[in-house]
Amino acid sequence: MKVININSSYNSEFVKEVEEESGQKLNLCYQCGKCTAGCPYTDEYDICVSQIMRLTQAGQKETVLKANSLWLCATCESCTARCPNQIDVARIMDVLRHMARREGYGGTGRVKTFWDSFLSSVKNNGRVFEVGLLVNYISHTGRFWTDIDLGPTMLPKGKIHFKPTEMQGKKEVEKIFMRFKEESAK
Amino acid sequence: MKIGVFVCHCGSNIEATVDTAAVAAAAREFPGVVFATDTMYTCSEPGQDEIVDAIKEHNLGGVVVASCTPRMHEQTFRRTVERAGLNKYLFEMANIREHVSWIGKDREANTNKSVDLVRMATEKLLRNRALHPKKFTINKRVLIIGGGVAGIQAALDCADGGLEVVMVEKTSTIGGKMAKLDKTFPTVDCSSCILGPRMVDVAQHPNITLYAYSEIEEIKGYVGNFEIKVKKKATYVDWKNCTGCGICMEKCPSKKATDTFNEEIGKTTAINIPFPQAIPKKAKIDPAFCTMLKKGKCGICAKVCPSGCIDYEMKDEFITEKVGAIVTATGFDLFDWTVYGEYGGGRYPDVITSLQYERMLSASGPTGGHIKRPSDGKEPKNVVFIQCVGSRDKSVGRPYCTGFCCMYTAKQAILTKDHLPQSQSYVFYMDIRATGKLYDEFTRRAMEEYDTNYIRGRVSMIYPKGDKLLVRGADTLMGTQVEVDADLVVLAVGAESSAGASELAEKLRISYDSYGFYMEGHPKLKPVETNTAGVYLAGACQGPKDIPSSVGQGSAAAAKVLGLFSKDQLESDPQVSIVDIKRCIGCGKCIQTCPFGAIKEIDFRGMVKADVIETICQGCGICTSTCPQGAVQLQHATDNQILSEVNALCQF
């Protein structure tokens, strides 16, 4: 475990950036742990959400942006809903994900690939096309047998479609992606 | 004597492990008992009415209640039997709660023990006599010991209530710890601005006599009539004529005297006035540093004093004051933090106490209100505060929470930012205890508005690194070890009982806990009384307290004194020793053993006899066990009464 020097390792730029992008004041957090208490993914996290908050407060940029938890967060917003100080914790998690991508941390390989596959599926089909996502993910990671055991159960129930379902507003969804690309290029 | 026995359930407190109905049934067989019953709550109104009704219906001559400890309800039931026309000493109590039901779970054994205790009580009651208190006049003057904010409040409230007040203060100025503070939480009021006028009021109040630089030498007497011997320590300055001009301080060549008022942050002169707002504003000489007193050379202060007040020959003086009540407000002292080797044990000049920091923040302090590192006088950038230094730490014998350090640390962090906007404060804490009105909001403000970095964890070591101090501790919320490069470290030193508290308690005959804090009469219901009649408590001498609590208790103690003095006469407790003159052989052993000096020698038809002064006797019974003749008997606990209890218990 690393010894943290509170002064020299404090990244004030990072704290400022998180606060600006999220519109949240980090020192409002008094570390009661209610966000962690309600988070349904804590058992999968490497750093629980209240510690992400504390590390962010303490300006520990690298530790935070390297955390796998950022990518496992489901944005269910239990943390936001329950925070006694009305901090939008889920928004902070989102900002941290953006920063991590921008700065090249991007989670570990597989998590990044899954997110990319997921988003490209939504972009192409207006909503997620599970089999397409699976093929994309497997072809990039080589994990052919991942979750294969779920197939025999899901197939007879008609849960697996081999063609993307047609939906309304597919064009509009694509436009969101276009707009994001333009905005972030500015 | 016809006796009635009432066995209390105390809800389920007793009934759960004692068969009270069986105890009552057994009691009906005891000699003298004509009536016995069990009741749900004997102390309640219907419970007491049942006793009154039974006394009238069965023409009872005495009552036994088997319930809780006499400390809880003896007075209650004595009043009940008095209401029914009986003398209140024709009542006995058997403690079957604290002594039985709360300490054992075996219902059968508990029931048997309760029966034994009730049997003892009835046997004693058969030998009780009606006792009648005597009346005596009281001296409506009050002594306040200690001139801190609690003592000041008690003194002013008593004086405004028309009482004559004598205040004795150990140091040369009143004001106590509060006078040393720069600001107060949570309002960040200037401490001396709010306390100063109260101090002036004490000095100017026509009803208050102030003895500063004085100590209590001896206390004699009892409630209503105490006699106090006050030692006025030699100041070597005639205070009647000293104008407090301060010229002596300017000219004194001995400039390295210990500055206790400034917590030794700076030095002072051998002749000094502690601070500009001191009350009384009079100079005194510290003999340990005065060249004239040590070597007989110098005498400069005597030459420059425009009123000719200096008297190198001055001696301690003793004064006797007579009062009817005493308020003890002796406050607290700081824990000696140098036992903590991990914080440097006093080796690092830039590790200071919170009270030293307070003097540094104060505009009238030795640095003129500038925050400077004691080592090099530089302004610090990173200030680290460490909480719970000598609080909540069993390893140094201080397991209790001082209770106000969280708040003053938050205040000092806020003031640090006000004084040095470029600075950054860090607070190592375990929990933030901010339970007063607007207190939690205040600590939040330190974090949210003043960007104080609160780190949850203790510090394990401080060591020098270049001209800085490296503070290593834990951040339990991040779950790791952390380090801070500090320019200045401020220790939130906890409170302990004031030096000499236990010696004073022995003079006052009041009890104190294992830490030297004075014991209140009851932890919930008698917070300002002591177990000695006429002695009251105010402020942190009873336990660590912040300013509003100390002031509140000062007022409460004053209210108790005013209530006591609302009567012109008090009743003495008739449970005192009496000498049977026929049996007394005049050996004088009782006179020697009496701790209160309550027994005197008298001449009876040419024979030497002992005689008890009833108003001084405290009923301790030491004389009765000393007397070789059994001539001295403590009323309500005579040898016959005690032996009848023993016989009742040891009959099988």
Would you mind describing this structure in some detail?
The complex is a heterodimer of chains A (186) and B (652). Chain A is mostly helical and 186 residues long. Chain A folds into 2 domains: 91 residues, no CATH class; 77 residues, no CATH class. Chain A is 55% helix and 1% strand. Chain A is built from 11 helices and 1 strand. The relative contact order of chain A is 0.10. Chain B has 652 residues and is an alpha/beta fold. Helices cover 28% and strands 25% of the residues of chain B. Chain B has 18 helices and 34 strands. At the A-B interface, strand 1 and helix 3 of A face helix 13, strand 23 and strand 26 of B. Strand 1 of chain A pairs parallel with strand 26 of chain B.
Radius of gyration of chain B: 30 Å
What is the CATH homology-level superfamily of the largest domain in chain B?
FAD/NAD(P)-binding domain
Model regions low in confidence, pLDDT < 50 over at least 5 residues of chain B = none
Order of helices and strands of chain A: EHHHHHHHHHHH
Would you identify the regions of chain A where 5 or more consecutive residues have pLDDT less than 50?
none
Which architecture of the largest domain in chain B would the CATH scheme give at its second level? 3-Layer(bba) Sandwich
Average pLDDT reading of chain A: 90
Radius of gyration of chain A: 19 Å
**Biggest sheet overview of chain B:** 5 strands, parallel
Indicate the percent of residues in helices of chain B.
Answer: 25-40%
- Total strands of chain B: 34
Biggest chain contact = A-B, 19 and 21 residues
Strand content of chain B: 15-25%
